[in-house]
Amino acid sequence: MFNNFPLWPERASSLAPGVDALYIFLVILSGFMSVLIFAFVLFFAAKYRRRPGVLAEQIEGSNALELTWSIIPMFVFLAIFVWGAALYYKMRTPPRDATEVYVVAKQWMWKFEHAEGQREINELHVPVGQNVKMIMTSQDVIHSFFVPAFRVKQDVLPGRYTITWFKATKPGTYHLFCAEYCGSQHSGMIGWIDVMEPAQYQAWLSGGTAIPAAQAGQQLFASLGCVTCHRADTQGRGPNLVGVAGKPVLLEDGRTVTADDEYIRESILNPGAKIVAGFKPIMPTFQGMVTEEQLNELVAYVKSLNQTPLNQIPKPTSVTQNNSAPSGAPQMQVQ
Ligand code: CUA
Known about the structure:
The chain has helices spanning about 15-45, 65-90, 200-205, 215-225, 225-230, 260-270, 290-305; strands spanning about 100-105, 110-115, 120, 125, 130-140, 145, 150-155, 160-165, 170-180, 190-195, 250, 255-260. With about 325 residues, it is an alpha+beta fold. Strand 1 (about 100-105) and strand 2 form a beta hairpin. Helix 1 (about 15-45) runs antiparallel to helix 2 (about 65-90) and helix 4 (about 215-225) crosses helix 7. It binds dinuclear copper ion (CUA). Dinuclear copper ion (CUA) binds near residues 182, 186 and 189.
């Protein structure tokens, strides 16, 4: 309505209308209550103003009035809670069919890797109408992935994954911000989300010569020697990883955990933390030997073993065809 004075950012995701509806409701409710309270303040100030010869009389209160102004707000607040919780649940639950994008934040840039292998910095291309799940981690400090037009904001933490998702509804270019103060160049940690028509997006995807993330992970799996223990049969010294991702895993200490991204990540960096039942804690840590990007690729590979059951786990060969620091030297971590 106001082109040069927008009241809120463009709505460009499936979540945006729901967020705005709740927000508008809260603004109207707060506005209504403020007007009501100030109207009463003015009205009573005039009505009960001091007049010569009139003495104030004590009022003992009214149960009916107090119950009314307690019970009505209670239901209003409960409605806000239920509404907000439902919206939050929706925002926190990526649809199953979502394509995955790995995000590594660092001082001061956003690094993206598509499941298809395309890598981008401070710019992310996505197709319109497609659910996109962001699997995010940080290489150094806490950042926050914020796309106002999508109504999406999620902290990005070092040492673990956080997740958000969106479905863009309108082609265009939208601002990406870092919304957590992360050092002197925090304000420069910005980028763009390019939402494209599906056909255009396919053309963009096929433009590069990228190796899909899972395939890059497969090469790492071979070059790091994982394959010597994690074999696709029951003869390996480590668990067979085929079909593990997303499934419950029985641990040596009797607990059962779900093999989600976080678990796979932890098992690479800190293999002793959760030993699978029937195996010995013999796996070395890969902390400092793989970059965040390589870690994401390894996770993508382990997950890909579900989609094509009995996907041939590669023979232990020294494959070094990888475009992100394949040598043993870990990438310098910015402190
Ligand atoms: Cu990254 Cu602020």
